[in-house]
Amino acid sequence: MRVIDHIKQAKDTLISFEILPPLKGKGINAIYNHLDPLMEFKPAYINVTYHRSEHIFKKKPDNSFEKVVIRKRPGTEAICASIMNKYNVDTVPHLICGGFSVQDTEDALLTLSYLGIDNVLVLRGDAAKNETSFIPEPGGHKYALDLLKQVIDLNNGVYLEEELKGTSSTTFCTGVAGYPEKHFEAPNMQTDLINLKKKVDAGADYIVTQMFFDNKKFFAFEKACREAGITVPVIPGLKPITSTKQLTIIPRTFYVDIPTDLSAEILKCKKDEDVEKVGTEWLLTQSKELKKAGVPVLHYYTLGKPHVVANVVREL
C-alpha cells in the first residue's frame, strides 16, 4: 500500500521505522535481527536508505593508481523486497541523485515497480566523501526536484525513450524531505520553503522531516508550510540520543541543534548507559506531544538502536 493511503485510512497516528542496509559482507539476517524487536508495533512501513558509491584509488603493481568504485551498503531494492516478503509490511526505498544517471534512475524505478514496491522517498543525497559540494553523476540529476519529476513522468507513462508506444504507468507514492531547522545549503528558511513547495507542486505526496529534538521547531515548520500553501502531510522524523559523543556528531553531521536542557542532562551522565536513559525519556516526551498534536506518522530513525526505539513505542 502507498504511504499516502496508509495516512488517509488511519484513525490514529501511525508508526514507521528507518533502517540502513548492512555493510557489505554482512548478510540479510543483520536486517532481520534489527527489525525483529520492532515488528510487534505493526509499523505502517519501513524506510530503507540508499548510499551512493565511493571512489578509492588503488595502487597497481607498476606504482600507478587505479580509480575503483566501491559501494559499502548495497542492496536497497532487494532489502525492501525481502522485508516485504518476510514481514508483510510496506517498504519505502530511498531514491537519490548521487551516483545515478537518468537512465540508471529509470531502470531502478522499473525494478522497484516489478517488485511490487510503490513508494519512494526522493532525495538529492549528500556529496561524496571526497567532494566539498554535491556533484551529480554525468547525465544525472542535480536536484531532488528533477529526480521527483522523473518519477512523476513514469507515473504518467512517460519514459526516457519517447518513441515507446503503449507504455504502462507506475504508481509510486513520492515522499520528499523537509528541514525544520533549514537545509544547511539554503540561504534562509523562506528560500528553503519555496523549494519545498516546488516539489509538492510537482507531485510529492508527503514530507518527512530531518531529525529534530525540539518540538517547537517542528510545529513552527509545519505552520510555515501551511502558510506557504503546502497542504500535504508533514511527518516528523525522530531519533534517540544514546551517547555523549553524539552531542557533537549530530549537529556537525545533520546541521540540527540540541536543546540546552537535553545537552545539560547528557553532560551530567557518567556513562553512555545513563545517556541512553536520558535520550529515551526525551524521545518519549517528544513522541507523546507529537502524537497528542495529531501528526499523521511518527517516523523513527533507528540507526543501530532498535531497542531504544522499541522501548519508546512500547510506552506510547
Low-confidence stretches: none
**Structural class per helix/strand content?**
alpha/beta
Q: What is the H-and-E element order?
A: HEHEEEHEHEHEHEHEHHHEH
> How many whole angstroms does the radius of gyration measure?
20 Å
The coarse silhouette is globular
The number of distinct structural domains comes to 1
Mean pLDDT comes to 92
Major sheet description: 8 strands, parallel, barrel
Summarize the structure.
With 316 residues, the chain is α/β, with parallel strands linked by helices. The protein is built from eleven helices and ten strands.
How does this model look, in words?
40% of the residues lie in helices and 18% in strands. With 316 residues, it is an alpha/beta fold. It has one domain (3-315): TIM Barrel, CATH 3.20.20.220. The strands form two sheets. It has an eight-stranded parallel beta barrel, surrounded by five helices. Helix 5 runs parallel beside helix 6, helix 9 (260-268) packs antiparallel against helix 10 and helix 10 crosses helix 11 (306-315). The radius of gyration is 20 Å and the shape is globular. The mean pLDDT is 92.
